[in-house]
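Handout, section B. The chain below has 278 residues.
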Amino acid sequence: MAAVTERSNFGKIAWPVVAWVVALIFFFPIFWLVFTSFKTDADAVKPEHLFFFTPTLENYTNMTQNYDYWRFAINSVITSSFATLFALAVGVPCAYAMAFNPSRHTKDILMWMLSTKMLPAAAVLYPMTFLTKNFLGIFDTHFLVILVLCLINLPIAIWMLFTYFKEIPKEIIEASKMDGVTTWGEIKDILIPLAWGGVASTALLTFIFCWNEAYWTVRLTTVDAATLSKLIEGNRAPEGLFFGRLAAVSTAAVGPIVVLGWFCQKQLVQGLTFGAVK
């Protein structure tokens, strides 16, 4: 009995310690990023100034005054928001159809959608750049960035929504049909309210994926539709990286997403655990 009690007391102490250690390991890169952003470019590469240095806001001042941070941030908000809205506008009806009106090809279609994520982005970079520049004339436009972000995140959005919708009893939808509710009414008045946690978490994750997308936003934009990823990529030169400025720009880029995730963590957790507990 004493051994069991000692083991229980040890677990009460050990598991919180392990949890804190793991949390600190994951948080340390973010801490170091913010920490470095208050160093000058010279201090950021000097070993003797690794921990002891004179803090400065020079990097943030240069970012807002000389690098036009707000223009890049507004472009990120516009492209990520509209790409998320369009992904949901397409994903919700698709997931609804496959969840409540499945066919023998539904699983094949879902696997095909997921397989598109396995295509190397570099394989289609040149043809997409060539077509959008020379034929379609939409290179470096918000429309192109929104379209690309929507398409590359649509498979994940559909898969997540499909999983959430499958947890809703079909009898509810069948009862609404018997009452004469239209398909749009079923989606708007019944499905979305019942699966609101899943829809919210899908929207949040899609927005985060769109905001963090760097490969396409860097290569399909130059000035007009350039996002924060382009601003981060611009803090390099033939002589090397400007670590202080790069850390400041990166902090300003991830900051809005961290704040958004903090305030929306309830919806995110609810959506990610939707259907786990009956």
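Note. The radius of gyration is 24 Å. Compare this with the example in section A.
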